[in-house]
Fold this sequence. Notes:
CATH class of the largest domain: Alpha Beta
CATH architecture of the largest domain: 3-Layer(aba) Sandwich
Largest sheet: 8 strands, mixed
Helix content: 25-40%
Strand order of the largest sheet: 9-8-7-10-11-13-12-14
CATH superfamily of the largest domain: Vaccinia Virus protein VP39
Strand content: 25-35%
Order of helices and strands: HEEHEEEEHEHEHEHEHEHEEE
Amino acid sequence: LINKTLDAIRNIAGQLPPLKEIHVNASPDGEIIILFFINSEAPPSLANIFEALKKEVNEIAGVISYAGRKKWEVLGKNYIKLRLNDITYQSTEGNFFQVNWRQNKNMTDSLLDLAGLKGDETILDLYCGLGNFSLPLAKRTERVIGIESGYSAIEDAKKNAEANGIQNVEFICDDVRKGLKMLLEKKEKADLIVLDPPRAGATKKIIERIIALSPSKILYVSCNPTTMARDIEMIQRGGYILNRLQPIDMFPHTYHIESIAELIKCAESPIVHISSSPLNTNHPHKYHSPQ
């Protein structure tokens, strides 16, 4: 469907204004949203472009144009719906979500396995986005707090919680560092902290505040092994051991990889259990129990 959409865009390329980028977002249900980043401060309307594209690809549900990085025009829908297990997500254009949705399911299932929830925990989900981890965690425990600096993502997260009837999750729109400071000042406690930072990783101050909250377990999700290793070293110095590490092949045939690290608060000598191969879409994942 994406290739069909790209062919349709090529067919009308001569009618398009000068472009910087084109983003094509596709939902698993077959809806397409196209973002055109136009090299102009006052671009023309793309209404005719939208109509021409929809004639070729009926699944195109919306077209959004940007003047540089400023949203300029919205034609049709500006969001797509995504379903993961028993949860439906809305993702508004411009918000981050995992593009490999099948592997996102594997990653979420792996994180839930590693969480080992009993049902009475308070969980802190840092860089929570639109609730990718927060919502399935909330269905399995007592309370979840999600922190995310992106206002639009937090609005989606709140809508997603309401649409799925999940009431035990609180979403805070704030910088993660400041959000952690606020929780410490309120003397909040967290049994589990999920940390899913951008490629640059977490800052030293963020890690210090995570350790100050003293969770029993930290699940660190990362798309950058280099910054992940750096941050895990700091977390280990704070009294945690790396217990398990699960790589996930989110982008097959590339060097990009996602990983989930399980760090446990423990004073004993560290024992590391590392999965021998990345998850892929063709083989079920298995964890190796401690020997």
